[in-house]
Every structure is written in structure tokens, then in C-alpha cells.
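Exercise 7. Given the encoded structure of a 142-residue chain, write a plausible sequence.
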């Protein structure tokens, strides 16, 4: 009986080790781990099945939408320079990836901030098309 328990434990450990290795490999190769603005933009375009429009994105970014704030209220009229949060005063790094290399390198983080900020600006979440237009605008800034 003791030999059977040892064998069962070894198989369990081997299975656990295999599962752990497979999970680690998946994490390393997950697209979100190597996200870029372009990969996120491509995903939004695929969802909407329409091209993104940088001019619409700029207009969206700089316009209030029935609320007190626009995106530019905190991120600045030019997202190539640092902004400042409208209520806390906290400095916000430039939004344009050409001016801030770490922007849009994590798809989950992009979604988190779109969700939060769109609720402040629109009192709702942004549509996929709105996100695509804003990313197209930010990508156009060099």
C-alpha cells in the first residue's frame, strides 16, 4: 500500500510539474504580454469591422461629451506632453506612444484605463469604435 501511495504521489507531482510548465509557456507567449498599440488597434478594428479614424479620435479626445471633462482635461490638448489629473493634480505621462515608450504595452491595462476614464468622460464605457479611433489618433502623433 505504501508503494502505491508513493507511486500516486510521484504521478501527481509529475502532472503538477507538467501543468506548471505549460502554464508558464502560455504566459510567455500570450499576446497580451507582448501587446503593442498596433496589435490592440487591429483587435478593435477586427471587432468593429470598420477602419479606425484618427480625425474622429482627435475630436473625441478633445471634446466634452455632456460631462464636465474631456480626455484632454487630464491628458492635455497635446497628448505628446505630460498632463495633469483635473481633480488630484497628479502628473500623467504623455499618452502618445512615440513620446512614452511604455504606453499600450499591456492590453489589460489599456482596457482598465479606457473603462475608468470613459466613465468619467462619457458616464458610460467607450464603444470599441471609439477606442479604435482614439488609438488611431494617438498612433498618428510623431
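Solution.
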Amino acid at each position: 500500500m505504501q508503494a502505491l501511495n508513493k507511486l500516486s504521489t510521484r504521478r501527481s507531482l509529475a502532472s503538477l510539474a507538467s501543468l506548471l510548465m505549460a502554464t508558464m509557456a502560455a504566459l510567455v507567449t500570450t499576446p497580451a504580454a507582448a501587446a503593442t498599440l498596433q496589435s490592440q488597434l487591429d483587435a478593435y478594428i477586427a471587432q468593429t469591422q470598420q477602419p479606425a479614424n484618427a480625425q474622429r479620435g482627435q475630436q473625441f479626445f478633445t471634446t466634452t461629451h455632456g460631462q464636465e471633462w474631456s480626455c484632454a482635461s487630464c491628458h492635455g490638448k497635446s497628448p505628446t506632453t505630460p498632463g495633469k489629473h483635473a481633480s488630484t493634480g497628479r502628473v500623467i505621462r504623455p499618452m502618445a506612444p512615440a513620446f512614452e515608450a511604455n504606453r499600450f504595452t499591456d492590453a489589460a491595462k489599456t482596457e482598465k484605463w479606457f473603462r475608468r476614464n470613459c466613465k468619467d468622460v462619457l458616464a458610460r464605457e467607450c464603444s470599441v469604435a471609439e477606442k479604435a479611433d482614439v488609438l488611431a489618433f494617438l498612433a498618428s502623433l510623431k
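Remark. Strands lie at 83-84, 91-92. Students should compare their own answers with the one above.
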